[in-house]
Write a sequence for this structure.
């Protein structure tokens, strides 16, 4: 049962890693002027909700399966995701707003955020992998 | 009865368009445009039409007139839009008028004299070509003003006489004409540049009378009594001379001094010649061509010439007579005008003049002082005594030569020698360290600081307002670069000395940013037609005056430092028709140029001008009665709409349904097509809704005549704005263009419906102001869609109730439109607003317009732009997408310093605005600004441009209040003052901490910030309607600096005692120049009458005990009691006070695009509160007085 949880987490984590990479690529495309802000933001906004859900599921799963350490590790980022999603002003077109993404260094902070998430998910990935190994050994 | 005859076709047509098809097949039918669910369409149209419409058939009976009008329209529009005839000329006269200030007048006098001299000696067109050095010098020396005026008069000639040679009136006659049509050029050259025109001599005479007495006055008032002392005095004015001559031999300086003294003993007119002769005598004709002052640096050829020329190319002795040999060409008359403008505005303030003198001494080399041997290092006492002379008469001895070398504003002169290092051009790359160390040392070592740094004790010094308007500080560049630099009206930086590193910028606690007004109405603009537009290969910068030519074939980009080749074509200069002088091309001689772009700059063929009007016709709108005004304005200006033969126009009206108007040519009368399916809007007919203005003019006129009466009996109160906008977008998307939306209430139906969010009880809350941001993203999305299709949406909101401008404004904000708001608009109850709408519309409809524009701002490597303010969509990192650009739009950007700028001593900024003119030409307008880089904090403060800083802060505060909260933004504003002043005070260690000291450059900073805090956008505690607040915020974001400053800090003048002293002459009119008053009730005396200029409003406040003569002569009423409550115009009374007042007011009006509404205020008038709210130095229940604010700041600093 434990191993099922971790295998699921591993797959989910892979998806999140891919998503982070996708975010980084799209944002850097915008930075390099390959795509315009409008299409960039509509692309990214589509994936904001899946990301929130994907991460929340893992976090909840860890809580249910009583892996406290991993749960606490995931909690801040999951909270941040949800907070960010909720706090979008009513007039904005999503977390990524084409009219503001070039202002006040937003692009850079989005980029930084995506990088941090990528690092975090990689960390989690190896943690899950290790846990699966542990499970299978025991 | 033609009415019945005229009517039947229309319903028939409507029915034809709506076959009354079964509603079931709607989806299928919609794409074909054959309208489905419209069984009710024809019915309604029949109901509504006959009422207003049937009465107009007589109009249809003369369709032939429509054709006859086409040619005439074509001609007039042709005139219009080449920025020549009628369109530009109104704006033209305004700046030109400013040239005529007294101090400039002396100059003008000289100009004339020298010109006569010139005319008598050489044929006019040989300037810089044959005789070059010697003779050419004389006109060139006095050139700035000459050209300003001459071209003015010449212009008139062109307009009046030779319309066909319209290129000549291209705004920049010398340059562009030559360029565009070299064949004609030589013939036109003398004509344009030096016409012995009656106008010029008239001006000259006018000033003879003025300036000569002024000179006498100078001698009297001056503390130096003898002439010999006044010579060094004037020498000091010649900063470069004094400075340079110290570098060279003393004897040469002496000879110059002799020349000067000779000249001073002679008449003022002679001075010019003398100076020139001096140059010639000392066998330096090489430089004599360029500028009188520089030519008088004898015995100093090589270094001086390299300093002079190096920006253009490396010093090549054989050519050294050339580079400046055609200054009259190089200097755009516009900038000359601009300089003249500057001088007119600043010379009138006495204190900068004095300090200029002060700073000159301090800034120069020590030897300067010994050479010039100034008797008194100007102690402050005589300064103040001279300050009492309001209008800069103090220095009539200013040589014209001087005024040419460095633009004549006193402030410009204040710190020129502060950084002698800039004399060496950066392009030479002198030992930078060595240079900067000498720079750094200078500012601190000298006991006297540059003017910008003069400490001012704010709590004690109460009169900090200048006598007339606040001048823009002038970058501390060497005179050559300064002359080439972009006009501060188009391009301003908050710090005219760019700090070298981000750390230094952070220390200064001032924001770094640019304020742009790129599409400003320019009187004269060099237009360049060239098959290759020379740009840097790596950063795509356009070639500009600040690039350096490494040799004849290569130039180095001043933004990215890449070395580029000079293309073959660029080697030929069509102006002089000479080869091998790329540095003399107009692109390299003007910092503001316009290129006619080739097809490389088009993604599609240039679009025609397309105008779509979307009009609210609900009950509320009809009640407000705006339709009549709009239709009449449109009828009046139909022929003046910018455009060409392809211009198209269309109309949509909406209430709870959307009505389209088929104006297809050939119809006997306009057809109304109603679409009631607002949830799924579609275009009822594929064509005929946007029609050619010329082909369907009669139909359009019929419609405009009929529209105001068509909906008089409507009972429809709903407004389906969102659907109408969607329809408008669909209609416009194939071409792009301009949508003008007139809305009078909260949209209540269909897409984009809004709910009232304002809580009236919260209006005067001091805590939270909510709902500053949009409620829905509908309008933002729509705007982005429009922007993508090159369509801009302009919003006219004429509402009496809350209409959620915060949401509605999005449609204009992101589509590069503009927003007009008329609170409590009613055609009869509120005539002031009605008048304002009428005037605004006139300007709106006839002003220049650029379509499918993009703007890119580039800056020197190391600087990066991180935030943009204004109405546009930022498409990629530095590309602003502007569907439309209009001359009244301003922009601001914030910058940061990413890499330290230690390798360079100059930072450059370039904006390029690519647009399609209304004539279907693709054009690029390029502005380039060049600023020095400094490495000491003191220099950063010395160069701070307080107006730009405040405008940028206002923009940032708007962002902050929307994204965070209003109190946050207010705190940030106060902190900006506190931080920067405390940072300044900590740098100047010798200051007493107990006082509140500001550098002179920032002395108005606390006042302006207080004004901002009391501005509608940011005030708390005073009842402010949410829409008013949001509108003020929109204006802050989109207004150019000049207008914004008036909004923030209005100008107050006392007008009951206008006197002839300190007047300026404008077109034979005498315009009095009353001094600026503090915005405080203490200045308002009951005996006086005051004019407040708030930018969009003029208030005239009449005191209770105001002189009855004034009331009688100016207002036309016998006494105070008989003045009516609503008075919006001054009568034309044939009395001197009335004449003066009116000429002053019309002069103020001439200087701005939107004609302000005038209101006369008596004590009981309801507008009185508006007036008193603008007295920002006074205490209100909710806000500090100025003095309290200063104490508050001091407290904060001491913490």
């Amino acid at each position: 049962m434990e191993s099922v949880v971790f295998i699921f987490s591993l797959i989910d984590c892979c998806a999140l890693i891919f998503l982070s990479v996708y975010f980084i690529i799209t944002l850097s495309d915008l930075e390099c002027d390959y795509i315009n802000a409008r299409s960039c933001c509509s692309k990214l906004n589509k994936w904001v909700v899946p990301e929130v859900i994907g991460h929340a599921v893992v976090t909840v799963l860890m809580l249910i399966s009583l892996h406290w350490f991993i749960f606490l590790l995931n909690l801040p980022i999951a909270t941040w995701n949800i907070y960010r999603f909720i706090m979008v002003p009513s007039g904005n077109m999503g977390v990524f707003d084409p009219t503001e993404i070039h202002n006040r260094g937003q692009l850079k902070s989005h980029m930084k955020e995506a990088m941090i998430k990528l690092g975090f998910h990689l960390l989690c990935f190896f943690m899950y992998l290790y846990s699966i190994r542990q499970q299978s050994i025991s | 009865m033609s009415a019945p005859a005229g009517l039947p076709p229309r319903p028939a047509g409507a029915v034809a368009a709506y076959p009354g098809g079964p509603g079931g097949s709607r989806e299928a039918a919609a794409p074909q445009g054959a309208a489905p669910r419209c069984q009710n369409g024809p019915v309604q149209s029949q109901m509504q039409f006959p009422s207003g419409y049937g009465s107009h058939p007589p109009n249809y009976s003369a369709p032939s007139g429509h054709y006859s009008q086409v040619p005439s329209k074509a001609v007039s529009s042709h005139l219009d839009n080449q920025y020549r005839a009628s369109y530009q000329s109104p704006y033209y006269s305004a700046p030109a008028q400013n040239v005529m200030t007294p101090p400039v007048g002396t100059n003008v006098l000289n100009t004339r004299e020298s010109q006569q001299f010139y005319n008598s000696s050489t044929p006019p067109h040989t300037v810089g070509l044959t005789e070059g050095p010697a003779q050419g010098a004389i006109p060139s020396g006095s050139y700035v003003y000459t050209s300003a005026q001459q071209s003015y008069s010449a212009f008139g000639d062109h307009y009046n006489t030779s319309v066909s040679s319209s290129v000549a009136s291209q705004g920049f006659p010398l340059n562009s004409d030559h360029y565009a049509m070299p064949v004609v050029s030589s013939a036109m050259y003398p004509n344009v540049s030096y016409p012995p025109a009656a106008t010029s001599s008239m001006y000259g005479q006018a000033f003879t009378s003025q300036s000569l007495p002024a000179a006498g006055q100078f001698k009297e008032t001056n503390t130096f009594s003898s002439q010999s002392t006044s010579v060094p005095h004037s020498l000091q004015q010649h900063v470069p001379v004094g400075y340079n001559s110290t570098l060279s031999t003393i004897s040469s300086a002496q000879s110059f001094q002799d020349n000067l003294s000779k000249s001073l003993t002679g008449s003022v007119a002679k001075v010019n010649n003398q100076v020139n002769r001096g140059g010639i005598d000392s066998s330096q004709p090489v430089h004599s061509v360029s500028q009188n002052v520089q030519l008088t640096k004898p015995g100093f050829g090589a270094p001086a010439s390299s300093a002079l020329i190096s920006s253009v190319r490396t010093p090549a002795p054989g050519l050294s007579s050339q580079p400046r040999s055609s200054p009259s060409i190089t200097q755009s008359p516009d900038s000359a005008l601009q300089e003249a403008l500057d001088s007119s505005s600043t010379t009138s303030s006495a204190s900068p003049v004095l300090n200029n003198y002060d700073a000159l001494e301090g800034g120069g080399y020590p030897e300067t002082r010994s050479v010039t041997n100034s008797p008194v290092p100007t102690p402050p006492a005589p300064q103040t005594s001279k300050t009492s002379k309001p209008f800069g008469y103090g220095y009539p001895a200013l040589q014209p030569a001087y005024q040419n070398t460095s633009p004549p504003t006193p402030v410009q002169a204040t710190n020129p020698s502060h950084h002698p290092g800039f004399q060496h051009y950066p392009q030479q790359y002198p030992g930078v360290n060595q240079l900067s160390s000498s720079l750094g040392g200078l500012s601190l070592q000298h006991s006297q600081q540059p003017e910008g740094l003069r400490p001012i004790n704010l709590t004690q010094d109460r009169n900090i307002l200048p006598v007339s308007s606040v001048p823009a500080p002038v970058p501390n560049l060497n005179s050559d670069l300064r002359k080439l630099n972009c006009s501060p009206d188009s391009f301003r930086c908050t710090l005219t000395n760019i700090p070298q590193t981000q750390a230094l910028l952070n220390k200064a606690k001032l924001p770094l940013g640019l304020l742009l007004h790129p599409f400003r109405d320019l009187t004269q603009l060099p237009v360049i037609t060239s098959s290759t537009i020379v740009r840097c290969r790596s950063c795509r910068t356009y070639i500009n005056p600040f690039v350096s030519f490494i040799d004849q074939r290569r130039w180095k980009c001043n933004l990215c430092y890449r070395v580029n080749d000079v293309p073959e074509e660029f080697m030929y200069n069509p102006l002089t028709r000479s080869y091998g002088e790329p540095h003399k091309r107009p692109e390299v001689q003007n910092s503001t140029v316009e290129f006619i772009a080739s097809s490389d700059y088009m993604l599609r063929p240039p679009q025609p001008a397309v105008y779509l009007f979307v009009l609210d016709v609900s009950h509320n709108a009809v009640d407000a009665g705006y339709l009549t005004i709009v239709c009449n304005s449109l009828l009046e200006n139909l022929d003046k709409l910018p455009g060409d033969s392809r211009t198209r126009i269309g109309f949509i009206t909406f209430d709870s349904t959307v009505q389209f108007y088929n104006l297809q040519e050939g119809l006997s009368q306009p057809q109304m097509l109603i679409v009631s399916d607002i949830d799924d809007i579609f275009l009822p007919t594929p064509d005929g809704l946007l029609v050619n203005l010329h082909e369907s003019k009669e139909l359009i006129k019929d419609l405009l005549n009929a529209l105001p009466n068509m909906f008089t009996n409507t009972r429809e109160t709903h407004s389906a704005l969102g659907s109408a906008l969607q329809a408008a977008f669909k209609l416009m998307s194939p071409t792009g263009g301009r949508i003008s939306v007139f809305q009078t209430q909260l949209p209540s139906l269909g897409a984009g419906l809004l709910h009232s969010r304002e809580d009236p009880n919260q209006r005067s809350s001091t805590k939270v102001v909510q709902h500053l941001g949009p409620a829905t993203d509908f309008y933002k999305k729509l705007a982005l869609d429009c922007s993508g299709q090159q369509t801009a949406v302009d919003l006219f909101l004429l509402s009496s109730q809350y209409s959620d401008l915060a949401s509605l404004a999005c449609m204009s904000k992101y589509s590069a439109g503009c927003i007009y708001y008329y609170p409590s608009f009613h055609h009869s109850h509120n005539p002031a607003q009605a008048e304002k709408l009428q005037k605004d519309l006139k300007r709106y409809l006839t002003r220049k317009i650029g379509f499918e524009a993009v703007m890119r701002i580039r800056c020197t490597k190391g600087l990066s732009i991180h935030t943009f303010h204004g109405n546009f969509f930022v498409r990629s990192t530095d590309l602003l997408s502007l569907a439309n650009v209009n001359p009244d739009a301003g922009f601001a950007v914030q910058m940061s310093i990413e890499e330290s700028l230690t390798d360079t001593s100059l930072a450059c900024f370039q904006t390029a605005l690519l647009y399609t003119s209304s004539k279907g030409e693709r054009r690029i307008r390029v502005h380039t600004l060049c600023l020095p880089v400094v490495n000491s904090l003191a220099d950063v403060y010395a160069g701070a441009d307080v107006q730009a800083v405040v405008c940028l802060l206002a923009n940032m505060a708007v962002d902050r209040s929307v994204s965070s909260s209003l109190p946050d933004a207010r705190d940030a504003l106060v902190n900006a003052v506190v931080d920067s002043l405390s940072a300044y005070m900590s740098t100047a260690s010798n200051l007493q901490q107990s006082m509140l000291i500001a550098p002179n450059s920032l002395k108005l900073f606390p006042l302006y910030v207080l004004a901002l805090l009391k501005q509608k956008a940011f005030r708390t505690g005073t009842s402010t309607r949410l829409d008013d607040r949001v509108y003020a915020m929109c204006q802050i974001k989109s207004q150019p600096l000049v207008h914004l400053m008036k909004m923030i800090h209005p100008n107050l003048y006392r007008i009951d005692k206008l006197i002839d002293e300190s007047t300026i002459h404008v077109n034979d009119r005498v315009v009095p120049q009353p001094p600026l008053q503090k915005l405080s009730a203490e200045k308002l005396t009951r005996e006086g009458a005051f004019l407040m200029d708030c930018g969009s409003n003029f208030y005239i406040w009449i005191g209770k005990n105001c002189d009855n003569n004034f009331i009688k002569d100016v207002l036309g009423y016998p006494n105070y009691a008989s003045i009516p409550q609503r008075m919006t115009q001054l009568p034309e009374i044939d009395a001197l006070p009335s004449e003066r007042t009116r000429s002053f007011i019309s002069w103020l009006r001439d200087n701005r695009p939107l004609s302000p509404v005038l209101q006369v205020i008596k004590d009981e008038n309801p507008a009185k509160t508006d007036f008193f709210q603008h007295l920002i130095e006074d205490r209100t229940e909710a806000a500090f007085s100025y003095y309290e604010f200063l104490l508050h700041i001091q407290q904060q600093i001491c913490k």
Q: What stands out?
A: Chain B has a mean pLDDT of 67. The interface with chain A takes residues 773-777, 780-781, 784, 788, 806-807, 810, 813-814, 866-868, 873-877, 879, 959, 963 of chain B (CB under 8 Å).
